[in-house]
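Example 179.
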Amino acid sequence: MTNDIKEVLFSEKQLSEIVRGLGERISKDYEGKNLLVVSVLKGSFVFMADLTRAITIPCRIDFMAVSSYGAGTRSSGVVKITKDLDLPLAGYDLLVVEDILDSGVTLSYIRELLQSRGPESIRICTLFDKPERRTAPIKADYVGTVVPDEFIVGYGLDYNETYRNLPYVGVLKPHVYGG
Ligand code: IMP
Ligand code: MG
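Predicted structure in complex with inosinic acid:
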């Protein structure tokens, strides 16, 4: 499996430092608020587990799942909700947690949908940001780190449902996806 990785971009240690920094900022910013952390599955599941444990204030947790990619490395532009949230959103300060913000199509769809349910506020936290690739008008409020325009996997991120369990983040060799 590791043979498919061209280069390690972020080690376990680097990832945990990034996540700890985000947790500190979020804990400070949401002090006294009614924080609901929403994970967008599946890509954010590892980040979510680490981030919520780096948040030191009380919060609630919920999950939703969307799919927009299929088996390719480019967004299809079509977002489908495959699992909705359990909690009603009124009164909550929402923090939507994503693995990576790429074209922005997925998150702008999710933000609009969640906004229509009347939460107190909505902010977005993404571990990785590829700003060069943005086509939808969306910016994250918390960004772990900016990454180059390369397809990355590990720490929750997949290619064709594989590599999510890598503890680090690496660039996939192009031959793996026929590039
Ligand atoms: P967007 O709608 O184009 O912003 O796509 C966001 C989603 O695409 C992310 O939540 C990921 O699931 C997936 N994605 C985008 N870039 C990558 C990548 O480099 N590696 C793995 N998944 C990616
Ligand atoms: Mg994905």
